[in-house]
């Protein structure tokens, strides 16, 4: 193989938004494969808010990416060369917690080959059947424990995780209310994804809109954003409500300390269960979650969108789409054409 490999490397820790020069695209020759290894070509790279967390020197759930190290991230790749009996050219694999690399060299042992389902596009494995789908499924079902007739509120509702949360809530017989940042997103939530109501936090008074759309209060708050939106929701929680704490995207670019929720005491008064979770803790249960999500998908009960940016070279600059709210559904970078 004569092609060079390309890898995005972290050069310096971003301050606030990611800037040009924080990461470098580095070319290296491809090394010959060793026995047991598989070489793949990246098709889709997953861009996630957590990429930004991993660039910062903070005490998070995984160590930060080191300066000079390949950026951490995963996606889907197609096998181009194999020295492992279990894989052959053309197999599609999930690179898991890999790196932003065009040609990842992967250990065949323990590598996940994608079970291609008829009629299901590859992008579904980045969304409902991927890590963000599992985040929505386990966060809501395991921590939120939605009961039929209850009201579930989700922030960043038109994003990869949020869009699944509201739809799963509907499948459970709940009232689903989403909070999102544009009229188009709100329209998609109610007209396509089947949410009962959607609130545009950029143009509406979120508190008043929650009062209107959640007349019986809020039983589950699936928290993706933090800040003022979270505070308005916390103020309206019901007794014995649940709050899966999934993400706090409004804080990831912060350069100053972030205050806690002003309505914190309501968690006590309402006896709310708030539980932070990280989806990697659910790895052992992924088969269960994927099976259930795949069944709902094939039954037509889950709608999903993918925001596709083309070109591996655009990975770092495209991450800002998540922080500017430009994506509808799961943001991915298409690095090479998906297999037919
Ligand atoms: N715990 C876990 O294991 C886990 C796993 C995956 C994701 N997450 C978390 O889940 C959340 C959603 O992640 P995702 O991958 O599904 O991303 P996403 O929702 O597809 O994209 C992020 C969305 O957040 C909204 N947003 C950005 N900045 C905001 C702000 N300051 N205030 C309000 N909304 C803002 C934007 O939509 P608008 O147009 O609506 O503003 C944007 O589209 C993130 O907090 C992420 O860290 C956690």
UniProtKB/TrEMBL annotation:
InterPro entries: ADH-like_C, ADH_N_2, ER, GroES-like_sf, MDR_fam, NAD(P)-bd_dom_sf. Pfam families: ADH_N_2, ADH_zinc_N. It comes from the Bacteria. Residues 21-333 form the Enoyl reductase (ER) domain. GO terms for molecular function: oxidoreductase activity, acting on the CH-CH group of donors, NAD or NADP as acceptor. Keywords: Oxidoreductase. SUPFAM superfamilies: GroES-like, NAD(P)-binding Rossmann-fold domains. The keyword rRNA-binding does not apply. This is L4BD family NADP-dependent oxidoreductase. It comes from Hyphomonas adhaerens MHS-3.
């Amino acid at each position: 193989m004569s092609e060079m490999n390309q890898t995005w490397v972290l050069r310096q820790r971003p301050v606030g938004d990611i800037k040009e020069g924080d990461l470098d695209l580095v070319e290296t020759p491809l090394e010959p494969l060793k026995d047991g290894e598989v070489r793949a070509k990246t098709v889709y790279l997953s861009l996630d808010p957590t990429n930004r967390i991993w660039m910062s020197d903070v005490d998070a759930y995984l160590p930060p990416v080191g300066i000079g190290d390949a950026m951490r991230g995963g996606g889907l790749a197609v096998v181009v060369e194999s020295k492992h009996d279990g894989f052959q050219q053309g197999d599609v694999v999930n690179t898991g917690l890999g790196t932003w690399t065009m040609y990842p060299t992967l250990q065949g042992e323990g590598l996940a080959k994608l079970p291609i389902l008829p009629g299901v596009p590859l992008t579904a494995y980045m969304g409902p059947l991927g890590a963000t789908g599992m985040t929505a499924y386990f966060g809501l079902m395991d921590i939120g424990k939605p009961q039929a007739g209850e009201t579930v509120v989700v922030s960043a509702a038109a994003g990869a995780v949020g869009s699944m949360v509201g739809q799963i809530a509907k499948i459970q017989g709940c009232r689903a209310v989403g909070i999102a940042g544009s009229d188009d997103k709100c329209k998609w939530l109610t007209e396509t994804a089947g949410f009962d109501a959607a609130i545009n936090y950029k143009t509406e008074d979120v508190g008043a809109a929650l009062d209107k759309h959640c007349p019986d209060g809020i039983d589950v708050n699936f928290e993706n954003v933090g800040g003022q939106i979270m505070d308005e929701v916390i103020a309206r929680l019901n007794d014995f409500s649940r709050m899966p704490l999934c993400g706090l995207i409004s804080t990831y670019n912060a350069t100053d300390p972030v205050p806690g929720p002003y309505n914190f005491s309501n968690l006590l008064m309402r006896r709310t269960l708030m539980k932070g979770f990280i989806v990697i803790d659910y790895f052992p249960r992924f088969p269960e979650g994927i099976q259930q999500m795949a069944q709902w998908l094939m039954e037509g009960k889950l709608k999903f969108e993918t925001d596709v940016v083309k070109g591996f070279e655009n990975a770092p600059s495209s991450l800002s789409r998540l922080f500017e709210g430009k994506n509808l559904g799961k943001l991915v970078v298409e690095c090479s054409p998906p297999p037919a």
